[in-house]
């Protein structure tokens, strides 16, 4: 569930299970499983509710399975999940490095596992093809950083992921090479706060507005990304998310390499400076706008997507109007819009949630309407052109067609659909973008 960081964690857990002798199967295709693991999200109460629903549904479908809940929900309130009769083991993020051992011990203790597990593989053993890990994935998620030191007032993630810490460059580069060797065409570099990469290194000057004026060699994220571009041949590289203060000249220069996907997810959260201060965001609306102008000046055809929270405590009609006006002027390629939901343990949970639900929902609707118009406007720019598409899977999408169609993503993060008798999974193919349809663009795969 949840963010791209959780997807990266899930891939690592799958690899650990395979090394221990398990076979990872797709939960949508399996008739039965011995162990079911849900990597949970807890960013909102809706995510918590979905996790509980998924665990109960999994128990009904796999009544004999050893049921495991891990991830951020399990880290935040393990006792709450432990009260669910459907769950056999609750293990938070801090237990992920030893999760396979915990599962194996519990699995055997419950009398569900054989005492004759295959021997543990050595770390340098060649593992089976990538399909053995996560059958549904065509893009690889590589974690380079975890944790956050910002403590935005509405966000629980620093308490579920801990303080910012970075992974050394050598293992990251090696992991990208391994993904490339396994046949992946794209890697997504993930982290809780990618711009924090390297701030925990000795001699680091940390984060701050002055980072915009640093030389490239003084920017750990740019330095790492330059190494990956220089020392690997992976076809596409994508960053999961950036903050406005991360958008430096040194980083933007790297987009001159076409392998770096022209897509930047840049969370806004609010267009009101007063609300941004209450949220403890580290930029103003003008600084955000300046960052977007720098990106568009350096990255042709770039898709800029964002997150917005509406109905934050104290948000006035004027505050929301400022957000609406800014989003309209910035012309996002897509927007994720969320009504404010207090999370216990955050600073914002102490504030009076004084925006009525009906007003929150109306503000959400207005922004979603704007998001739909912006998405359509951005997509229409590319109709009739050829674009590289990484094709993912063939499935039924009723909004698009009654029969199975292929789904894929362009380098600039547009969803594309196409029909074809050939196997497209995992291939990057030039595709003509023909017309807009529900949830994306209908494409014609080039020969």
Cα radius of gyration in angstroms: 22 Å
Q: Helix count?
A: 13
CATH superfamily of the largest domain: tm_1862 like domain
Low-pLDDT sequence parts: 128-133, 207-217
The helix content is 25-40%
How would you state the average pLDDT, rounded? 88
Overall CATH class of the largest domain: Alpha Beta
Q: Distance between termini?
A: 36 Å
- Largest sheet report: 5 strands, mixed, barrel
CATH topology type of the largest domain: pyruvate-formate lyase- activating enzyme
Strand order of the largest sheet: 12-13-14-16-15
Approximate strand percentage: 15-25%
Pairing-aware structural class of the strands and helices?
alpha/beta
Shape: globular
Our count of domains comes out at: 3
Helix-strand string: HEHEHHEHEEHEHEHEHEHHEHEHEEEEE
Per CATH, the architecture of the largest domain is Alpha-Beta Horseshoe
Question: How many individual β-strands?
Answer: 16
Describe this protein with a few key phrases.
447 residues, alpha/beta, Rossmann fold, pyruvate-formate lyase- activating enzyme, 3 domains, 5-stranded mixed barrel, 3-stranded parallel sheet
């Amino acid at each position: 569930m949840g963010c791209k960081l959780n997807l990266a964690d899930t891939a690592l857990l799958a690899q650990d299970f395979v090394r221990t002798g398990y076979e990872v199967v797709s939960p949508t295709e399996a008739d039965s499983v011995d162990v079911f693991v849900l990597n949970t999200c807890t960013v909102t109460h809706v995510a918590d509710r979905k996790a509980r629903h998924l665990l109960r549904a999994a128990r009904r479908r796999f009544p004999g399975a050893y049921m495991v809940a891990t991830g951020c929900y399990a880290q935040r309130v393990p006792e709450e999940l432990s009260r669910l009769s459907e769950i056999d083991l609750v293990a938070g993020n801090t237990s992920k490095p030893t999760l396979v051992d915990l599962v194996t011990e519990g699995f055997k203790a419950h009398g569900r596992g054989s005492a004759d597990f295959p021997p543990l593989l050595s770390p340098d053993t060649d593992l089976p093809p990538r399909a053995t890990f996560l059958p549904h994935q065509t893009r690889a998620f590589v974690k380079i950083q975890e944790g956050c030191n910002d403590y935005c007032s509405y966000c629980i993630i620093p308490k579920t992921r801990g303080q910012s810490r970075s992974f050394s460059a050598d293992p990251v580069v090696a992991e990208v090479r391994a993904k490339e060797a396994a046949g992946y065409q794209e890697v997504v570099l993930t982290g809780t706060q990618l711009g924090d990469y390297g701030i925990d290194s000795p001699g680091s000057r940390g984060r701050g507005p002055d980072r915009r004026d640093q030389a490239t060699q003084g920017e750990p994220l740019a330095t790492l990304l330059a190494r990956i571009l220089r020392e690997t041949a992976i076809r596409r590289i994508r960053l999961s998310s950036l903050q406005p203060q991360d958008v430096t000249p040194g980083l933007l220069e790297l987009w001159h390499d076409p392998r770096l996907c022209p897509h930047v997810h840049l969370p806004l959260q609010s267009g009101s400076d007063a609300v941004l201060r209450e949220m403890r965001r580290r930029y103003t609306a003008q600084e955000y706008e300046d960052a977007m102008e720098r990106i568009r000046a350096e990255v042709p055809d770039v898709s800029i997507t964002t997150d917005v929270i509406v109905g934050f405590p104290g948000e006035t009609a004027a505050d929301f109007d400022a957000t609406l006006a800014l989003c309209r002027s910035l012309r996002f390629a897509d927007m994720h819009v969320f009504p404010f939901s207090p999370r216990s343990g955050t600073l914002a949970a102490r504030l009076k949630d004084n925006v009525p639900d009906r007003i929150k929902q109306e503000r959400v609707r207005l922004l979603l309407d704007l998001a739909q118009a912006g998405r359509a406007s951005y997509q229409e720019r590319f109709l009739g052109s050829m674009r590289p598409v990484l094709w993912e899977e063939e499935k039924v999408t009723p909004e698009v067609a009654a029969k199975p169609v292929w789904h894929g993503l362009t380098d600039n993060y547009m969803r594309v659909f196409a029909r074809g008798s050939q196997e497209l999974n995992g291939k990057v193919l030039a595709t003509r973008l023909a017309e807009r349809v529900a949830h994306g663009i209908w494409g014609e795969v080039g020969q």
